[in-house]
Fold this sequence. Notes:
This protein has 265 residues and is an alpha+beta fold. 27% of the residues lie in helices and 27% in strands. It has six helices and 14 strands. A hairpin with a 5-residue loop joins strand 7 (124-128) and strand 8.
Amino acid sequence: MDYEKLIPVIRRLALEAGDKIMEIYNSDDFEVKAKSDDSPVTEADEAADAMISAGLIEQFPDVVLVTEEQADTHREKADTFLIVDPLDGTKEFVNRRGDFTVNIAYVKNGIPIRGVVYAPAKERMFYTLADGSAVEETGPFAKDVIGDTTPIRVSNPDNAALSIVASKSHRDQATDDYIEKYAVADMKSAGSSLKFCLIATGEADLYPRVGRTMEWDTAAGHAVLQGAGGNVVRFDDHTPLQYGKDGYANPFFIAYSPTVELKEA
């Protein structure tokens, strides 16, 4: 993969998809359907997916593409692939809460090593550069010209006063029980893959996920966090979270700044 080519392409596709998503988000009404697993899907998910998929296939025709909205791609088996969640946080989108993101990542040998996370309603964009380091771009978000960027880096937290981020829509007792093992100074809630990015920027230190996710939900945020010096490990044994698994389903996991002293499950 030519990373000097990849990064501008995925950045531009995320921005274009974000424009379409916001056009629908700001409309008077939009249709919400239910998928086979009862999760919601909107015309914004489908439109963004069509745009991103077409762009990736045009630019990288020989790379396997896995995307949430195309069930046929879930049968692909590869260690190296592009993976897309065109609208992560559909519940946030439907409820007009703004915490939704466009996610595109490149996985090599089971590890997401490049990616972009764009939150169009919040006007925040995070991605890896060609060298794998992570930045936040602050605008003006021109499609073909990269704007001002700031390198991002995980915190060096005090384990006696941690900042923890958890899901807005999927918080449960098991998550709370695990959080209680830590000395918590601050709790944040965020939707979608923004939680990874808050750790990448040092705005939070730890994100435990005790609940169902798919690889397309996490790959881009994982890549950004890794580029900022962070880690993502399995909840049960603290081994690195791997990608390209059968069905692309994730186990429970923990995303964190490496100086956090992880507690056992």
